[in-house]
Predict the 3D structure of the following.
Amino acid sequence: MSGLKSLFKQTFIYGLATVLPRMLSFLLVPLYTTKGVLSSVAEYGKVSVIFSYFVLFNVVLAYGMETAFFRFFNKEDDKDKVIGTSTISLIVTSLGFFILALIFQNNIASFIDIDAKYINLVIWILLLDALVIIPFAWLRATQKPMRYAIIKILNVAINLGLNIFFLMFLKGLTTDHAFLSSIYKPNFEVSYIFIANLVASAVTLLLMSSFYAKIKYVFNSALWKTMMRYAFPVLIAGVAFSINETFDRILLKQLLPADIAETDIGMYSACYKIALFMTLFATAYRLGIEPFFFSHAKSDNPQKNYAKILEFFVAFGAVILLTVVVFADVLKPIIVRSEAYWEAMWVVPIILIANFCLGIYHNLSVWYKITDKTKFGAYISIVGALVTLVINYIFIETYSYKASAVATLAAYAVMMGLSYYLGRKYYPIPYNLKKISVYLVGSMGLSILSFYQFRGNYIIGVSMLIVFLGIVYFSEKNEIKRVLKIK
């Protein structure tokens, strides 16, 4: 159980590094959806589409090297060789992308249908973010979660602060300050959003620059080829994941009539954020368990710990799912400020359940990472991406963002099922399926019933939540006490 205690300690700190920055970033949603900040719902839709491309290109520029770094850092005796090889690789590819993207920025803008004035900012942000991938991975691999957390939190705090300054205060201060008057431009809100992001990314790289000053720049071509063979399936899986996560916004823009596309994207993206609570939990958990998976792979009977990890994840995730669904309409005016966005509230339970399935998939994925069968992760992700694309292409024109929400759920559910099925064959783990099924099916069923049949009836909704909490507590109290060593 000491391994589990270490996991929960790291998960808590990485949770702070993820949850607090995301919660600060979360404040951007009510900022953007407040009347008068952005000119229309469609403007928020435009921002959402650009950030969808961010997700895709961030994956491509990382090309699985972060996961490969973790694997070989724990596997190789010469740590400096792993650090140097992966760092040099990412520096070269990032700068190569940067130069080519600057040369062809107008062609890129035309191809992806994004205003050219935003592309230059996007290219710089992508470069800066790529250059901190290995430094952040090194902090996690060497178990320096506090430094990791502080820098991550500072990044989003700067981003948030500048967003608030540019969108809320800059215009009002221009009459009294000549310098501020010189940097203010009317109808420049979307650009200000990306300028804030750029400054935050630049400060982050500056804070991580000590990593580049102290490492040994040793490049081992044989190791690099081995790492790339490991990383390539991770890249394919990452691209497929980005399709599942954000490509629906791009497809909505392409497949819906131009006069409603960005408005629907804006509504969908804003209400999607209410599901962020599940995403935060799943992400923090993943950041904690990934180093744990690799570092404990050679311990005695690691499968037992892996099984317990999934059980705890499902138990806590089920409580989060039902809680957010029951109180979705309470959270709604706090997070999404303008009623112009609320039409898309229908998607909230669907996206929450989808992200719950994704979190379970990340826990199940231990089998192919530990056994170096990362190609299966790529295969599974490709299947999920195909599900996403097919459902969106067939149904978007009729059902708009509702089709996108259902496609996300279907994709992650299929991936979860495939990973479990294949894991049983290649790396059997004794999961407590009976207990996990009760938590998963119970929370999903109660969530759907609460939102779509008894929405707004808090007597029924809260009663469901209390009963479910009781079930989880009495089922897990002994295990929790054992982990925490409470007598």
